[in-house]
Design the sequence.
């Protein structure tokens, strides 16, 4: 299974990004996890632009096309989706990379319900299958927590492993239902 993880935060010490790096560090047989480093380099979406003129757009679409599952962790800004993440999604609304693709949300905090609901709606419009519309919360002790701290904490590590196993099981079950 190939999983593309996307952080909606560009902050270097983002707890969303640290959580995704912890997920990516899980060594599971038959699972490859990549973290998209691309959304901050995308130009502002404008339907007058030709997407092929922007290598970052092509790379982002290729990343999505590669993935069997997309995992998103994003902060919420003023009850909304961060602009950089919404911009990335706007670049692929009409191109089909999300079509029938399972998408899951994970959060390092219980806050962010408005952004996750908005993201779920946007992604459903793009014909993706939202696996956990309410998102999964792995409460981290504080902002600025590092990936090493998450992986080094046995309780947090088990929660990350359980989340990943659950998402993979949901993905496989949904795939069997659609066959």
Sequence:
């Amino acid at each position: 299974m190939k999983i593309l993880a996307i952080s909606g935060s560009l902050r270097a010490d983002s707890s969303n990004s640290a959580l995704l790096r912890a997920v990516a560090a899980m060594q599971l047989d038959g699972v490859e996890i990549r973290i998209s480093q691309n959304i901050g380099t995308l130009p502002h979406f404008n339907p007058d632009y030709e997407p092929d003129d922007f290598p970052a757009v092509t790379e982002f679409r290729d990343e999505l096309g590669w993935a069997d599952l997309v995992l998103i962790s994003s902060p919420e800004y003023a009850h909304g989706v961060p602009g950089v993440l919404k911009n990335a999604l706007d670049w692929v609304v009409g191109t089909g990379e999300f079509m029938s693709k399972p998408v899951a949300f994970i959060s390092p905090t219980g806050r962010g319900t408005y952004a996750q609901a908005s993201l779920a709606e946007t992604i459903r419009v793009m014909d993706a299958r939202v696996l956990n519309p309410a998102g999964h919360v792995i409460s981290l002790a504080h902002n600025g927590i590092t990936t090493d701290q998450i992986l080094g904490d046995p309780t947090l590590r088990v929660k990350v492993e359980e989340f990943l196993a659950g998402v993979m099981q949901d993905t496989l079950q949904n795939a069997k239902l659609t066959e």
Observations:
- The CA atoms of residues 18 and 146 lie 6 Å apart.
